[in-house]
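Field log, afternoon session.

UNIT: design team B
ACTIVITY: writing a sequence onto a fixed backbone
BACKBONE:
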């Protein structure tokens, strides 16, 4: 499946699970893409801000993620680096529990669900495993998140996938645009630009 280049910017409004907003800027590099994003929210009576910079290769595989977050408990920062073969370091420490993960999924971000969809370019209808380094919004802790994406037939020019994250007993139908960016993440976010 081929996708168009992403726009220069995109934005999502958080819905139901939290109130807030995410804004992202896409900047091509010589051999890939840099993504700069910021998301703010109120969730369960708590506020938080997460700023992130993702460096991707040309296939949308994550190379590095630099993330900072602020909440009532203070400022936190984390740096995530991969060797490109599914091995990860969090703040310079090897994290073997993350071996085999290929993407970074920020709890605060709807955009990061686009990473495995763009990277895998799925065309058949079988579920595909896409384990990710999952980064929590409130404290930036990183953990493994096993998840699957199953492509469905396109509808009205949009790509649809059945998404499941068994650890959260969560599943939904995600809708993506022709750039491979999330349009609708039921109960979480909707694209507004």
């Amino acid at each position: 499946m081929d996708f168009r280049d992403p726009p220069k910017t995109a934005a999502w409004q958080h819905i139901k699970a939290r109130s807030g907003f995410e804004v992202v800027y896409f900047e091509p590099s010589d051999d890939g893409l840099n993504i700069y994003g910021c998301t703010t929210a109120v969730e369960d009576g708590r506020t938080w801000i997460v700023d992130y910079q993702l460096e991707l290769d040309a296939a949308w595989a994550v190379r590095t993620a630099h993330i900072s977050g602020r909440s009532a408990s203070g400022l936190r920062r984390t740096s995530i680096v991969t060797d490109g073969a599914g091995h990860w370091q969090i703040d310079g420490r090897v994290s073997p529990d993350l071996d085999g993960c290929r993407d970074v999924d920020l709890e605060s971000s709807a955009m990061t669900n686009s990473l495995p969809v763009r990277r895998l370019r799925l065309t058949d209808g079988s579920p595909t495993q896409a384990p990710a380094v999952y980064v929590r919004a409130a404290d930036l802790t990183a953990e493994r998140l096993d998840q699957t994406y199953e492509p469905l037939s396109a509808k009205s020019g949009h790509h649809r996938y059945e998404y499941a994250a068994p650890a959260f007993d969560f599943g939904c139908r995600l809708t993506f645009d022709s750039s491979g960016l999330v349009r609708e993440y039921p109960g979480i976010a909707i694209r507004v630009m």
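LOG NOTE: Residues 9-191 form one domain.
NEXT ACTIVITY: expression trials, pending approval
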